[in-house]
Every structure is written in C-alpha cells, then in structure tokens.
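#struct-help
A.M.: can someone run this one for me? Single chain, 268 residues.
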Amino acid sequence: MATLSLTAGLRDEYDRLFTSCAVRPQYQAQIDAAVAKMIANKGRYQAVSRTTNVPWTVIAVLHELECGQRFDRHLHNGDPLGACTIHVPKGRPRGTGPWTWEESAKDALGIDRLPQWSDWSVAGTLYKLECYNGAGYRLYHPSVLTPYLWSYSDHYSSGKYKADGVFSNSVVSKQPGTAVLLRRLAEKGESAFSDQATPSPASGPLVVSYMKSKPINEVKIGHAERLQRWLTTYPGVFVKDDGWAGEKTSNAYKLVTGHHLPGDPRGD
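D.P.: on it. Structure tokens below:
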C-alpha cells in the first residue's frame, strides 16, 4: 500500500495552502457555527488532549468530520457508542461496551498513533489529518486537493470518494475540511500549532483606521483586506480578510508592529 511522506516540499505546500486558505462565502455561517460548538466543548476535548498529547483543536475537527460533533458516537467513524464499530476500523474499541466518548476517542487516536506524533506544526498537523483520512486523493487524483482538509474553501471545488476506492470528479463534499476549521479556530485565537510563535514587532506596509462597527451591507474595504492578508503572513497571526479592521485586526496589528490601529480606543 502506497504511503505518504512529509517531505520539505509537502511542508511548504501545507504552509502555503493554510496561509492562503479562505472560506467560500456561502459556507461561512456553517463554519462559524461548527467552530463555536467546538469552543463551547473545549473542556471535553482538552481532557482527552491531556492524556494523549494530541492538540484539542485536532481532536475537535476530527470529531466534526467523523461524528458531526455528536458525543454519542465513536470518533473512529461515527458509529454509535453502544457497541463496537461496525465500519472501518471495525470492532473498535476491543471488548464490550458501552464506552464513554472519551474512552473511545483515546482508542481512535491510538490506532493512528497520533499520541506518538510530536510535530504539531501547521505542516505536521495537516499531514497527520490527511493520513488519518487516507492519501488517495494525493496519490491517485492529484488534481484534487483532499476535501478532508480543504472542503468549503477556495482550494476545493469538487471531486470525492463516494465509497472506498470509488472516486467521482463531479461529487462535491458536503462537510467542511479540517484545515478550514483549524484556520477559523486560529482566527478566533484558538491556535495550537507548535511553530506559530508570537511574531516580533515590525513595521507594516500600510495602516488603516480602526473600525468600531462592521461595514454596512458587508461592503469590503480594500485596504483593510490587504492589511489582514499581510498580517497573516506572520507566524502566529491568523486574521480573516473580511475588510473589517476591528478589534481582532487591531490586536494582530499590535502583535506585529507594537501598536494598535489608529483610532483604536485602547491606544498603544
């Protein structure tokens, strides 16, 4: 069976795609709702994280993709918790149930040896998530970026495995990608990437004024969008390029430059 290796080139690809990833507008509300639910259940994910060393954000996005964030389902594949799994991986966890969601989650993470993985950088995380679902897209359909990572973003439009080994170019994934969810979590200040340290202050290429309220009718402000994209090029900074230079953009600007945006009532 072909395997996928985390080469330097693949690392660069993951970093580039994650930095440039943008949610398609028609899916924004669904992404935001899923992320809000993850943050609300953060404590449960962190409890599993503490005993597995897998970042809670990774557990949360797997839970969304495999179970729709239902806590009465196995993290392995979404089968009911009351008995062993009947789909691949079949017969997990070993023994007789029922199991708690946390017990089953630890088993699911262990099958893929995620607790033994130590590279939780952006690239290392996306690599393990792609491997968790399978590398079939990359190995056999390289023109399609795996929807398990990129669905609902501008990096993906169509192409999906309808069943094991059965691929269709026309089928469109109806689930958000794990990388897309992680990017939105990062924009919400919930990044757990090991390589995303707080950036050192630096001067920026442009300045926009702080906006207390969102632009009317979702009108985007071009300069603010460009500023937000520039801020996201710095490690540890993820800002949604929505043209609203509000509190989150001002916070990110201070991380990079040492100053809030002009007009921010908090000052420097």
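A.M.: thanks! The mean pLDDT is 89.
D.P.: also worth noting: The beta strands are 160-163, 166-168.
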